[in-house]
């Protein structure tokens, strides 16, 4: 069986492809014929073959063979499609499942520099943890030292630091020990955008809360205490939901919608299909009430919007897979949404 790869050139945001083979078909088994240099222009330029690919081979095997011939195209950077405007195929797909003849034509697209999902989340969450601590210790390059020494730190400042660090430490530990990421990758630019969002907002939030002139919430101790309690409950709930989802994935049971257990924090599965997003939104709303600062409020507002979009998208997928179990549930907010 022969696998034929055709390059797709990108033009004004869409892909166009045309296949014109210019290589010899009498190749050694598994060997590439060298392609012409890849050029970006209106019509695609290159097509090359891997001869005698075993039918049981996967697309990942094809990518590795391609990488040996063209070192600049490492496997995670290559996206393969059956049609030039079609969806990207998973690495686990076998060549045999795609074959309609002895030659399989695949279109390849450069996905750009890629990073693994674990690296993505560790980088995204480590920044806010360290940045907040830098503001908490009140570096001389950030705040006036004379004013910092004279000012009294309200207990909510210390509590806010504890809660903020707890939130991101939980995310980091779950990334390492709870979540099971696929072997896929994401573009480096996505990590840069995510880091800019989280790191930038953390700097803004931490600057105000740790400022020597920061004023505590209007309703004093009760407001702080109740909000902190709600924050901790949401953090615990988020963790237990993630553990429940991970347990279902590890057990291989993907035919049933996750069900609540004896743990009260998982009972939210009875009302919504994405309780982890509910708890995440609740954490930031509680943190806003506890600190009573504008930057936190804006960040919480944006996070709620993002969580609702993710929940709506996942809810639609659940409806297709588990309609009888999900049809009466909301996506993120019980009864409302």
UniProtKB/TrEMBL annotation:
Organism (species): Corvus moneduloides
Domain of life: Eukaryota
CC annotations in GO: endoplasmic reticulum; membrane
Name of this protein: Trans-2,3-enoyl-CoA reductase-like
UniProt keyword list: Endoplasmic reticulum, Membrane, Oxidoreductase, Transmembrane, Transmembrane helix
InterPro entries, per database record: 3-oxo-5_a-steroid_4-DH_C, SRD5A/TECR, TECR-like_N
Listed GO MF terms: oxidoreductase activity, acting on the CH-CH group of donors
3-oxo-5-alpha-steroid 4-dehydrogenase C-terminal domain segment(s): 186-337
Membrane-related topology note: Multi-pass membrane protein
Position of the signal peptide: none
Gene it is expressed from: TECRL
Occurrences of domain TECR-like N-terminal (ranges): 50-110
Regions crossing the membrane: none
UniProt record similarity statement: Belongs to the steroid 5-alpha reductase family.
Gene3D superfamilies hit by this protein: Phosphatidylinositol 3-kinase Catalytic Subunit, Chain A, domain 1
Biological process terms in GO annotation: very long-chain fatty acid biosynthetic process
Subcellular locations according to the entry: Endoplasmic reticulum; Membrane
């Amino acid at each position: 069986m022969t696998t034929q790869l055709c390059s797709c050139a990108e033009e004004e945001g869409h892909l166009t492809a045309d296949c014109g083979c210019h290589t010899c078909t009498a190749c050694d088994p598994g060997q590439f014929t060298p392609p012409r240099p890849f050029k970006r222009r209106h019509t695609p330029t290159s097509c090359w073959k891997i001869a005698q690919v075993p039918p049981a081979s996967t697309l990942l095997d094809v990518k590795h063979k391609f990488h040996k011939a063209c070192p600049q195209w490492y496997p995670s950077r290559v996206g393969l499609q059956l049609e030039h405007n079609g969806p990207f195929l998973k690495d686990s797909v076998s060549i045999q499942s795609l074959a309609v003849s002895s030659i399989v034509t695949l279109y390849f697209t450069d996905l750009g520099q890629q990073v693994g999902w674990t690296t993505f989340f560790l980088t995204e969450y480590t920044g806010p943890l360290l940045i907040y601590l830098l503001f908490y210790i009140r570096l001389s390059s950030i705040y006036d030292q004379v004013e910092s020494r004279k000012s009294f730190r309200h207990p909510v400042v210390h509590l806010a630091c504890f809660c903020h660090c707890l939130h991101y430490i939980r995310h980091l530990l779950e990334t390492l020990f709870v979540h099971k990421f696929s072997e896929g990758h994401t573009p480096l630019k996505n990590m840069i955008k995510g880091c800019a969002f989280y790191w930038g907002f953390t700097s803004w939030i931490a600057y105000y809360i740790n400022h020597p002139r920061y004023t505590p919430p209007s309703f004093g101790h009760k407001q702080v205490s109740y909000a902190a309690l709600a924050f901790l409950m949401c953090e615990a709930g988020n963790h237990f939901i993630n553990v429940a989802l991970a347990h279902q994935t590890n057990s291989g049971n993907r035919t049933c919608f996750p069900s609540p257990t004896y743990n009260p924090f998982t009972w939210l599965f009875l009302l919504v299909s994405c309780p982890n997003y509910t708890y995440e939104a609740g954490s930031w709303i509680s943190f806003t009430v506890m600190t009573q600062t504008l930057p936190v409020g804006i960040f919480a507002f944006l996070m709620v919007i993002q969580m609702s979009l993710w929940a709506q998208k996942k809810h639609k997928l659940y409806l297709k897979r588990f309609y009888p179990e999900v049809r009466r549930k909301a996506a993120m907010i019980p009864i409302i949404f």
